[in-house]
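The methods section describes the discrete structure representation at length, but only in general terms. What matters is that the chain and its backbone geometry are given together, residue for residue. Nothing conveys this as quickly as seeing an actual entry. For illustration, here is how one protein appears when written out as sequence plus structure tokens:
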Amino acid sequence: MIVRRYIKDWLERKKPPFGAISSSVLLMIIYTTFCDTFSNPNIDLDKFSLILILFIIFSIQLSFMLLTFIFSTRNNSGFTPADTVAIIFCSTHKSLTLGIPMLKIVFAGHEHLSLISVPLLIYHPVQILLGSVLVPTIKSWMVSRQKGVKLTRPTV
């Protein structure tokens, strides 16, 4: 924070590609984790088990999103429609960049680390896919609710 005071103007002029760097690092973490997991000869995972894990994770993700929607839209919750959308997406989304290092620390040296990391490797793409599929529906719900809130507010 101290350094920022002195280089703020320079950063605003140059606009370093911090977003691209961050995305590249995230991509490398995901890539190396996938490679480590699925290139391990000790991983004993058949297609049926993988599909079952995918179904369970999809169901869990959808259930969490539905529960957060139900609790955040109750009459006495005090949340706006925009708050509800933020709650739905932020409360259920977990990052692979946090989960994989934690798994590697907690299960360091465990012979089945690759197998243990499979659900997390599936959860991350499922949350992105499910989020992108639900965005149009949630957006139309939010817009209609916000219009309803504007119509019912008393004007002064």
Summary: Residues 19 and 101 are 21 Å apart (CA to CA). Helices lie at 2-14, 18-38, 47-72, 81-92, 96-106, 113-152. Residues 113-152 form the longest helix (40 residues). The chain has a mean pLDDT of 84.
